[in-house]
C-alpha cells in the first residue's frame, strides 16, 4: 500500500471524526484512526503531529487567509467592524459542511484538551489581526481591542449559526451581535 | 523533614518562578523545583498536578470570587459594564506583587503550553460570568457577549497596567479601554 496515497489526509480526518464520535476523543487511539483510514500509523504522523491536530489542520492556512484581508482592506480605520466583517463574511463552508462543523464544535466543547488547542488557535487569529492592524497604522490598544473583541463577537455569532434550526446566515448573525454589543455600551462614555 | 511542612506551597511557587526565569519553563524539572524548595518531589505533586499548574494554583478560587460578585450585584441589567467593573476593581495585588505578575505574564506569553492553560482558565472565567448573568435573567447572546467581551477588554487593560512605567491604576485603565471600545462601534448600529 503506498504510504502517501492520494486522499489519505481526508480519510484520516473522516476516520478520526467518526471514532471520536463513536468512542469519545480520549478513548480513540492514533492506531485505530490509521486502521480505519486504511493507512499505517506512520502515515498518520506524516500528516499530523498528534491526535488533537486532526481537528485543527486547516488553522494555519485559515489564519493566514483571514489576516491577509486586513492588509488589503480600505477600511483599516474602522478596525472592529473590519475584523467582524472579515470573520462573518469568510466562506466557512470551505471548512466542511455545517453539520461537520457542528460535530467538531461539540467535540471541542466536551474535551478540555481540544478546547485548550482551539483557544490558542483562536488567540493566534486575534493576535494576527491586531498585528496586521498595527502595521496599518492603528494604535496598539485599539488594534488589540479590535482583534480580541472582534473574534469574541464572531464566536458568539458562530455558535448561534451552528445551532440546529438557526435560519439567518453568518454575516447577518454577526451584524446582529454587533448591534447587541453597541446597545450594551453606554453612550455617555 | 515533615512532608506537609508549613509554607511548602509558597516555597514551591517561589522556587518554580525562579527556576522558570533562570532556565526557562521547558528546561526546568519538577525534581529541581522540589529540591530548591527543600521538599520531596512527592510533596510537589500533593500541591500541584503538573508543572504548569504552579502558575495557576489560584485560578479556581479567583473564578469563584469573581463570578460570585455577579450574583450579588444590583447592576445585572448593565452586564458588560458589570463584568468590566468586577474585573478592573478586583484587588489583583492579592495575586502577588505587580512585579511578580509581570514576570508571570512574560513566562506565559513565551510558552505555548502555559498560554494554552492560561487561555482555558480565562475562558472558564468568561463562561462563569455568562452563566451567572443568565441566572440573573439576562438573555443568552447578551450574557455571552458580556462575559467574553468583558474579559477581553480587561485583558487589554491588564497588559497595559503591567507595563513598566504605566501610571494609571487598573480601574481607570479598564474604563479608558471601554471608552475606546465605545468609540469603535458605530452609533448607527
Structure description:
The structure is a homodimer of 189-residue chains. Chain A is an all-alpha fold and 189 residues long. Chain A contains 9 helices and no strands. The longest helix of chain A is centred in the middle third of the chain and has 24 residues, at 112-135. Chain A is elongated, with a radius of gyration of 19 Å. The termini of chain A are far apart. The model of chain A has no long low-confidence stretch (mean pLDDT 92). The interface between A and B is large, with 36 and 36 residues.
Backbone shape of chain A: elongated
End-to-end separation of chain A in angstroms reads 66 Å
Helix proportion range of chain A: 55-70%
* Biggest chain pair interface: A-B, 36 and 36 residues
Helix run count of chain A: 9
Radius of gyration of chain A, in Å, reads: 19 Å
In total, the number of strands of chain A is 0
Structural class of chain A: mainly alpha
Residues in β-strands, percent of chain A: under 5%
Q: Main beta sheet of chain A: strand number and arrangement?
A: none
Quaternary structure: homodimer
Order of helices and strands of chain A: HHHHHHHHH
Amino acid at each position: 500500500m503506498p504510504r502517501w496515497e492520494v486522499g489519505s489526509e481526508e480519510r484520516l480526518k473522516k476516520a478520526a471524526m467518526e471514532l471520536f464520535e463513536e468512542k469519545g476523543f480520549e478513548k480513540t487511539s492514533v492506531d485505530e484512526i490509521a486502521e480505519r483510514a486504511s493507512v499505517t500509523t506512520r502515515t498518520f504522523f506524516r500528516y499530523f503531529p498528534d491526535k488533537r491536530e486532526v481537528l485543527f489542520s486547516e488553522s494555519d492556512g485559515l489564519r493566514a487567509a483571514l489576516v491577509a484581508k486586513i492588509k488589503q482592506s480600505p477600511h483599516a480605520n474602522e478596525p472592529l467592524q473590519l475584523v467582524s466583517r472579515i470573520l462573518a463574511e469568510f466562506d466557512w463552508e470551505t471548512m466542511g459542511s455545517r453539520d461537520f462543523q457542528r460535530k467538531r464544535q461539540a467535540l471541542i466543547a466536551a474535551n478540555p484538551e481540544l478546547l485548550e488547542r482551539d483557544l490558542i488557535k483562536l488567540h493566534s487569529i486575534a493576535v494576527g489581526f491586531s498585528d496586521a492592524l498595527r502595521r496599518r497604522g492603528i494604535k496598539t490598544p485599539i488594534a488589540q481591542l479590535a482583534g480580541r473583541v472582534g473574534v469574541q463577537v464572531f464566536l458568539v455569532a458562530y455558535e448561534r449559526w451552528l445551532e440546529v434550526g438557526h435560519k439567518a446566515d453568518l454575516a447577518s448573525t454577526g451584524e446582529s451581535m454587533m448591534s447587541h454589543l453597541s446597545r450594551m455600551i453606554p453612550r455617555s462614555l
